[in-house]
Amino acid sequence: MVRFENKRAELAIAAAFLLGMVASNSHAATASFDPATGVVDFPVVEVLDGATSSFYSAKLQVTDNELQLIAADVISPAKGQQRVVFDSATAAVHVPSVVVGAEEFYAKLQLVPGSEPLRFTVAQLVSNNFQGCPSFSTPGPNQGSCVLSGEIKQDITLTKNTQWILSGGVFIGGNNTDSATLTINPGTKIFGQQGADFLWIRRGSKIMAEGTPDNPIVISGPLQQSGGEWGGLVLAGNAPVNGCNEGVNPCEIPFEAITSEFFGGNNPEDNSGVIKYTQILFAGFAVRPNEELNGLTLNGVGSGTVIDFVQVHKGLDDGVEMFGGTAQMKHLVLTEIEDDSLDWGSGWRGRAQFVLIKQSANDGDRGVEADNNEVNNDSLPRAKPILSNITMLGAPVATEGFLLRRGTGANIWNTVVTGFPVCITIDGGATFQNAGTPGNLSGELTMVNSFVNCATNFKDGVDATFSVADWFNSQAGNKTEDPLLNGYLPATGSPLTLGGAAVNDPFFDTVDYVGAFKDANDDWTQEWTFNFN
């Protein structure tokens, strides 16, 4: 925290630094500071509220050791350029580029909780020019690059003025000991240099990756050409998982790819941090034979973690995989994944809303592969996520849209599946038994207000006790018809636009439409994602 004492002159200088001029490209907005009045002027501020945003011009007044909002006027949207961003979810103001003389800075302001009128303190003031490699890293192969390796058991911040390179496994914190926080600023780029390079946030530690629409965080392979160029991002938490012997509490299990690393616990609300406006690209290297990492792996991650506006693109293994836990996600973009786009097991009981799954025409397996537990299909806690507003676009090379098996539960709402050889498969005696029967469902495995349109819509798996077609057709609002999509967005006249229903759960935004997008004007993937069209 950058602290300023109660000296008006010093704060005025700081305000000039922070709010002088946003000037990182030709479309940069400018701001002015009047030292006579202590007023700073932001011509363009985007205020984020979920997938929607509003634009304002704003004025702040220097008062003691804070900046106080004194005026905010609505202006026309000004996307497609660098701009000041206020993220209401994290209460942070991000100023990407402030030029003062020959120096350029990134600044972060933090809202003072409960302040009225709104007041802000200065959380970060960081040069945008490379300053050399900090002590937790070593010089990289190129000017402006620094290498991260091994265990890091201190709070660190990765900034956009440096190209960060992962060397081997990089572990943040110990296993519920020596906890640390990894902060990643907007616009920061992190690269695996080759193969088995990965970033792992251990139990008890946090990642604070706060990108913005105009400055997303990028974690990628070096060539950005094919899956498997590096490992992936892994979060390990203390939320409940299954897979232990009966009576073991808390259940803690080793990760399948790196068996020395454990996850799981008894805190459903565990908090592993924030991942927002982040691209995870070209991951999936096998860290040992036949054990590839996913783009994003969530091991026992709790519901206190914020995952919103995250893209996984061109992963060699799965896009996002949950091993138990209660992790919650919104606005996922899973594109050209070469195995399963969304995968869960070990008792995941989280939530997800607004998910785009778009498979490559050349590779890919399932849109969703869902298990409870591979070894003991009835292991507790049983997997039972709540999912809503998924748009799942398959390809002829794929296997199926949904594979629901190995005793999993799920409550699926407002979802459209199209373009796969098979839309929905239910498999395994434990899965069928958990579901109940059409007309007398248990509530453990349901799908409502959803559309399917595949070469074969339904497939009955092994040990079926009812037909999947009967299961689907017995539930409210389901349709087997063309959803009328234009790419991944609803076309004019699409039945999706009014076919949805609200989920009675506080995590979910209230919607009346099916799929990840309300209409052709609701493309929340714009600007912050890696090109996938």
From TrEMBL:
Signal sequence coordinates: 1-28
Alphabetically ordered keywords of this record: Signal
Taxonomy, superkingdom: Bacteria
Name used for this protein in its record: Lipoprotein
